[in-house]
Amino acid sequence: MMGYTLPVEIQLTCIPLVIAAYVLYLNGQKAASDNVQNREFLTFQKVYFLPYFMALFSDWLQGPYVYKLYSYYGFPQREIAILYVVGFAASVTFGTATGPLADKFGRKKMSVIFCLVYAFCCLTKLSSSFNILLIGRILGGISTSILFSVFESWYVHQHTITWKYPIDWMSLTFSKATFFNGLLAIIAGIVAQAGSDWLAFGPVAPFMIAVPFLIIGALLIVKNWEENYGERTMNWAGSCSEGLSTIMKNSNILSLGLVQSLFESNMYIFVFLWTPVLDEGHPPLGLTFSSFMLAIMIGSSIYSILLNRGERPEQILQYCLIVMGSSFLVCAISTNPGFPSDYMYLSYLAFITLEISVGLYFPCIGRLRGETIPDNLRANIMNWFRVPMNVITCGGLIGMHHFDHPQASQMMFLLCGLSSIVGYLIARAFAKMPKQTTGEEDILKTENNV
What we know:
By secondary structure, the chain is mainly α. The chain has one domain (about 5-445): Growth Hormone, Chain: A. Helix content is about 80%, strand content about 0%. The longest helix has 30 residues, at about 170-200. The radius of gyration is 21 Å and the shape is globular.
């Protein structure tokens, strides 16, 4: 595959992606504005978005530089792998604890704790000590669990219980959050690159830039958010077991959790695979990453348009898995070592399609979690969902590196494609299940006259 390069193809692909993202965003927002013109709701969205976007921005600032920082400090690949695995293990081990703690002691408090813990995690990157960096990875794993469960739990409670807005409006919030998450990722990449090049800290700079955004996010939460709670009567151990028991007893929650674990583990495996797959084509990594984020933005706008045309989230979830599975199966073909180098561009286009499915997925799964998971155990159950996801991701990556086969990436793409098909079958079964409504849903069905 030597001699074939991707930069021109990627540059040409980015132009229609930018146009498509802009046009679809305008169409998606028009559909949203036609349905929702409630100023109070729009103000409530801003109260949620400002600190949440600060948290996401700080997370995106760091992501591309974690591996580079460890290499900069001179750690061999084996020790870097240990640091990564510790981060995933911390998310699995401590993640199940943060949910019940948030439900019991307050989701606002836990969101503030996230900002402070993640800021301290960033500061550990100033040290080249392996043990201190190890502590940083543990703190990072804990912080990630909070970011991707507690913030959403706070929002859903305020939306459904405090303000009693129509449950359909949640989709508008999650779609907008997914779109701007992609935009923030692009901006964060530019800021991180500029900081790394211009500031004296080198690859430590993005981590230092993230700290003030986390502090501002904490101050905004303290000032603007009301406190809300989940299950408060049980002790911590009882609350943890209650969350797991609820998942196992409720077929809707169990099915949704399985779909989430399969989809997101495939997504994280893709994050580790795309760079080595395209590496021989010498792609401009910043531009390639930006094109992926544009694809996510396109997906989020398509979700809004589909929803406005009457598609149900349960059906859209099936579309996500079909598109993801098809993309992985194309990659399983295009990454065959015996195929011509031109097939590398086919892999890139499959990656773009896969990222569109990711943009469709996040607002969809957010809406379905809001409808399906009981509020009193929301953060608890959401963190339990992340346990199999982390286990599958770690198992897949460790297995791929352990066997070190020339076709390892191809086999992994095939497995991800097959697991996406399994996810589709579960999502299809989920769509046919009778929905067991929670208390807040019963309220909302009679109070849509906001």
